[in-house]
Each structure stands twice: as C-alpha cells, then as structure tokens.
Amino acid sequence: MMLSRQIHSYWQALPLTLILLGFLVFPICVILVVSFWDYNEYSLIPDFILENYEFLLTSKVTLKAYLQTFKYAFLSWLFTFLIGFTLAYFLAFHVRSQKTQTVLFLLCTVPFFTSNIIRMISWIPLLGRNGLVNSSLQSSGLIDQPLDWLLYSDFAIVLAYIHLYTMFMVVPIFNSMMRIDRNLVEAALDAGAAPWQILKDIIVPLSKSGIMVGSIFVFTLVMGDFITVKIMGGGIKANVATLIYNEISLLQYPAAAAGAIVLLITVLMMLMILFRLVDVRKEL
C-alpha cells in the first residue's frame, strides 16, 4: 500500500517535472553550452573556449554595469519597501472595513491593467524638458531653466522601477500583516507600549516573511530588466541586462549566453543570502 502511494505521488509530480525540465532546465543547459562556443561576424562555431567568460569577468565595462545594476536594485528595493510597507500597514491596521480594504487594494492594481512599456512612456511627457513638471516649476518661479536630470537619468530609471514594482512589495507584506493576531497589538497597547515599539517589536518581525518575498520579487525583476533602462535612460545608461541585449542585437550569442549565466549565478547567490536571513517556507 505504501509503495503504491509513493508511485501515485510520483505520477502526480511527473507532468510538472517534465514542464520544468523542458521549459526551464533544458534552455538553461543550452545557454550554458553556447556560452563556451566561439563566434565571428557571421556564424557560431561550436567549441569549448573560456574567452567569453575571461573577457566578461575582466572587463571594466562589465564591472561598471554590475555596479549600476546593484545600485538600481538597491534603490528600487529601498523605496518600494518604504512605500509598500507604509501602504500595507495602512490597509491592514487603519482601514477597518473589509469592503473598503478590498476597494482600496483593487485601486492599487489599476496601473497593472496596462503594459509596463505604456506606464513607462507615460512619464516622458511629465519629466521631459518641456514636460508638465518642468513647465509647472518654471511658471511658479521655483526654477529658471528646465531640470535635465528628471528624464533620461538614474532618477528616471529608479522612479520607473518604483512605479512598476511597488505592488510586488505591497501584496506579500499586506498578506503577512493580515495574519497578525490583533490581540497582540491590543495587549501591547494595554501594557503601555508606544506605537513605534509595537511597530518594531511586533509588526515588523511578524511581517518579515512578506518583506522577504517582496524583496525577492523586486531584486530579481530589477536585476533582469533591460527595457526600463533602455527607455528611461534614453540609451545613455546601461545595466547588465542591457549589455546582454546589445550582444544579442550584434549576433554575439556566445558572449550574451556567458553574460546570462553570470547574471543567473549572481541572482541565485543573492537569493541564497536572502533565504539564509529568513526561512520563507517556515514563516509561510
């Protein structure tokens, strides 16, 4: 009986296993193999060389791109966390009506009804030299000339990331906060705890699983994104994914494959560090 149950469990897991092997593991293996190939201006040469990785790991351009990527990831995480935590806290603890919570939560998802590219492009008429922000500041007398750093800059890129990915931080944190026993908060208030003490000793520790899940979403999405940097950076800013995109555009597939493998390893190392900080499976 026990053996038949185990065999039945294996049969249940087989479809998902085949899908993961075919659409995740196999493509990664192909990319890994191609990363060791040679290439020239017009063809790929099956081989086993390390020049792609040597150039990648010793290039100052790669180092600068990774530093830029980590900067974008950290700043995006910081601001999405601050905004997401505040919004989730307000919805979970200050909005008493469940109907109102649902309505406000759905309002937060309205921007997701359009594509990421449209939401990014919508910032251009606002932040451009002749855009609404610069025009308003000039007409009010606060500035004499347009602010060039509002668009096609690091500020614009991070702003777009915040706009795109804040909800990925709000949802898991809100889910964690809704599972906090309200009697703990009431007991802390009765014991004379200040609001900031309740936040520090109860809310944040019990929400750390949601914070970690949201952090994983934001970090992985920013690390692998190139279209935001390409549009909001105006082609003068670059991150690691942009370098990979440029190599693919030049048909340098082995170099792009090597860059993708190194980026994948980097993201996996970041995830390992995050998982060591909090056991997400245990917390959930």
Can you walk me through this structure?
With 284 residues, the chain is mainly α. The chain has one domain (60-283): Orthogonal Bundle (MetI-like fold), CATH 1.10.3720.10. The protein is built from 15 helices and 2 strands. The chain has helices at 2-34, 51-58, 60-94, 98-108, 116-121, 124-127, 132-139, 154-178, 182-190, 195-206, 208-223, 227-232, 240-249, 253-277, 280-283; strands spanning 38-39, 44-45. Strands 1-2 form a two-stranded antiparallel sheet. α3 (60-94) packs across α8. The chain starts with a helix and ends with a helix.
Kindly name the structural category.
mainly alpha
Number of helices: 15
What is the CATH topology descriptor?
MetI-like fold
Taking all Cα atoms into account, the compactness measure Rg is 24 Å
Per CATH, the architecture is: Orthogonal Bundle
Q: Assess the beta-strand content as a share of residues.
A: under 5%
Q: Which quaternary structure do these chains form?
A: single chain
CATH class assignment: Mainly Alpha
Please tell me the total number of domains.
Answer: 1
Low-confidence region ranges:
none
Percent of residues in helical segments?
A: over 70%
Q: Any idea what the shape is?
A: globular
Lateral arrangement of strands in the main beta sheet: 1-2
Number of strands: 2
- What is the H/E order? HEEHHHHHHHHHHHHHH
Largest sheet: 2 strands, antiparallel
Termini separation comes to 32 Å
CATH homologous superfamily caption: MetI-like
Task: Give the overall average pLDDT.
Answer: 88
GO biological process, one term: transmembrane transport
Membrane topology: Multi-pass membrane protein
Keywords: Cell membrane, Membrane, Transmembrane, Transmembrane helix, Transport
Domain ABC transmembrane type-1: 66-274
